[in-house]
Please model this.
Amino acid sequence: MASSSAVPSSASAAAAAAVAAAVLLLAAIGAQAETRKYQFDVRMASVTRLCGTKSIVTVNGQYPGPTLFAREGDHVEVAVVNRSPYNVSLHWHGVRQLLSGWADGPSYITQCPIQPGGSYVYRYQIVGQRGTLWWHAHISWLRATLYGPIVILPPAGVPYPFPKPDEEVPLMLGEWWRNDTEAVIAQALRTGGGPDISDAYTINGLPGPLYNCSAPQDTFRLKVRPGRTYMLRLINAALNDELFFSVANHTLTVVDVDALYVKPFTVDTLVIAPGQTSNVLLAAKPAYPGARYYMEARPYTNTQGTFDNTTVAGILEYEDPSSAAASSSNLPIFAPTLPQINDTNFVANYTAKLRSLASATYPAAVPQSIDRRFFFTVGLGTHPCAVNGTCQGPNGSRFAASINNVSFVLPTTALLQAHFAGRSNGVYATDFPAVPLMPFNYTGPPPNNTNVMNGTKVVVLPFGTTVELVLQDTSILGAESHPLHLHGFNFYVVGQGFGNFDPASDPAKFNLVDPVERNTVGVPAGGWVAIRFRADNPGVWFMHCHLEVHMSWGLKMAWLVQDGSLPNQKLPPPPSDLPQC
Model:
């Protein structure tokens, strides 16, 4: 049986056992249990890592938080009570939220935050998704510790489209700061400079044995049996880093990304961006190997600034059938060989392998004709420092980030509430630019003026609009990869490349047959990615960089999808307990 070790307050200590129990429970009750109910008490808890103890925001005192289990088609109700000193909202990352936009969770987009002492019940249905998603705080940097897995099983009686694993284990990759992350981002926004980097990466909340002053119990351990197959439900919950992941002397077969099946392929190492999930099959060796193996993750980045250049490790251990009580601590341990931190070619080659199943049972419904085309530049920029001020950004300025040169400013009223009430004046504008207002050589020498404008702007789409969006990285302050997450929709990644997107020649290379379907995609460093989706979900839907620092600097925008003409194409009224600003 798979197992892990952690501090008693961590739900991940028994993650594998919980998954196994939930699988048996859901299999037993099947279609009769159509609503899964959970109680989330958001409260502070003391946690010790790397010889330091600090108070962090948790759900039910657990870090990482509890796992939500459901089957495809189930309804989910999560009653959240905020007993912390912070404003809080929770996002169910990747859940489509069809006609349930009030439950999506981003503060000041679909709801006002739950204030200290307040409560809210998130209600939604899992539709057309099966695999791994996750939930996390969606305000400020609280998601540094406020997160947990969502495990979605197929409907009762429906098998996986790949050999059924013997056991399933959530693996959440995260970051740990010795300092208070709310103070870290507050200082960065005050000074205009970059934030302090994390002190460690974590696997299921544990930093592992490679860090100084890491306690023995602070290592995630996965105990396996020879000859068995394990499905690792990988989630990148890190705030600011894409990560390579590998298990020494073992291969990983990718079968699912972002709760959508893919054509299986096998690799030694994978890359996973913040916000993304991936289910991979790990086949244990056929006989007891007499060795242990590191499971490691470390960053992929092209940033010009500082970053956490460390490695987190968990340990894969085999049960010895000849001596169950023997200690494995004296066995040799092997480490994987991970790519170089800036190996963009590896990342491009890996992502090119991702393909939808595109089968009769799981078709790829790629929009073949397009109603609206958009071209968005994404990247860093600057704001001027205040008169007589002192700022720590480039050349004495303040760091900023933008889409089409618009750095998004959160309103003080939730966009969805303003839209539904017909009171958009003074809250948001509907003139978000479909293309850059001032084209330039996006991946060439940067322009002299690096300033960006502020605004709270949305794109308005009629219900059912088919959209093609090209996301283009810029080199204004250095080319970087930007993982973009779209709320409310899945999309198809139909193309990607390096350099500037060429509208005359690049569309001919698009894959419109079996492109991967996702909710979060990395915009290549110094390149572009093209996605397609159908605007079939009325509401206001956030799109933002899932590098938390870039989102804090304004790399975000919103889509407003109007109601359709039929009753099942209209957003219902808000629930009576929706938090107010």
The chain has three domains: 33-157, 162-321+331-353, 372-569. The radius of gyration is 23 Å.
